[in-house]
Amino acid sequence: MSDPRLTPDPALVTGSTSARIIRPVVDLCRSPEGPRDRQLLFGETVTVLGDVDGWSYVQSVKDGYCGHLRSACLGPDQTATHIVSAPATHVYARADFKSADRMSLSHASRLRVTDTDGRFACTSIGYVPLVHLTEITTRGTDPADIAALFLGTPYLWGGNSRFGIDCSGVVQAALLACGLPCPGDSDMQQSLGVAADGGYRRNDLLFWKGHVALVTSADQLIHANAGAMACVYEGIEETIHRIETQGDGPVTAHRRLPSLHSADELAL
Predict the structure, then answer these.
(1) Partners of residue 89 on adjacent β-strands
(2) Rounded to two decimals, what is the model's pTM?
(3) 10-76 homologous superfamily
(4) Average pLDDT of the chain?
């Protein structure tokens, strides 16, 4: 049976056009007015498959996730040149940090930079500090470093931004920033990499039923969780004990990702 999260519903498909997100953060819902499944960020590209009563049925280009969002959140597609590499940034009315801020953007938001003005990038929506951007082709080399950008972010079920994020959102952001394909939900992410054959290594993934965490060292992990209601570091054994004690079961998988470093650099 096909997964409706990744397989468009033929009954809802009336066309296929490319568009981009033009709001800072947009909920991708299970149905119009329905619950949030995931979120999309400014500048991300979607394929619009159908439109009904102010809602669009779309498929996200970054991970194939299907869902409904408000049509007013979409604009014409355009090629992004830069990505927000800081945890978050502001868009200013002028190339001046004392000017009015127009909106806030999360890490991984995408922008088309048309020029520069001093320390600022010029975009169609305003001016963004250059120090907060990197070229779209730039790739991170350590997912755990990217995940750390979300430390302290409030926990939000289905969240994908620095303003609110969940466990699979942290993992997806970390992997995509390093050029590693990653689906949106933790059950899908459990197919990533290979089964680990030894102790814990940096950037291993640990899974529980409905939860995922990213290993940062031999005895520590990072994850967004409802216990802390934030993205936090936590001891591995402490986490395993706490999750099992609260009735959510044992670790269901320990996966090892393709190395972005040499084996000596990853070994702890």
Answers:
(1) 105
(2) 0.94
(3) SH3 Domains (2.30.30.40)
(4) 95
pLDDT tens per residue, range 68-93: 999 999 999 999 999 999 999 999 99
> Cα separation of 234 and 254, whole Å?
17
pLDDT band at 1 (very low <50, low <70, confident <90, very high): confident
- Using only C-alpha atoms, what is the Rg of the chain? 19
Span 87-103, average pLDDT: 98
Whether 232 and 187 have beta carbons less than 8 Å apart is answered as no
E strands in 15-171: 17-21, 25-29, 36-41, 45-52, 55-60, 66-70, 74-76, 82-84, 88-92, 101-106, 110-111, 115-117, 120-123, 126-129, 133-135, 160-161, 164-165
Contact between 224 and 210 (Cβ < 8 Å): no
Phi and psi dihedrals of 147, rounded to 5?
A: -60, -35
User: Residue 263 has what pLDDT?
Assistant: 38
One CATH from 2.30.30, 1.10.1660, 3.90.550, 1.10.3470 for 82-135: 2.30.30
Q: 267 by DSSP, 3-state: which? A: coil
Check if 10-76 and 82-135 are the same fold: yes
Domain 143-266 fold is endopeptidase fold (from Nostoc punctiforme) (3.90.1720)
Cα separation values, 178 from 30, 138, 175, 195, 267, Å: 28, 9, 5, 20, 19
Alpha-carbon span 190 to 66, nearest angstrom:
19
In single-letter form, the type of residue at position 194 comes to V
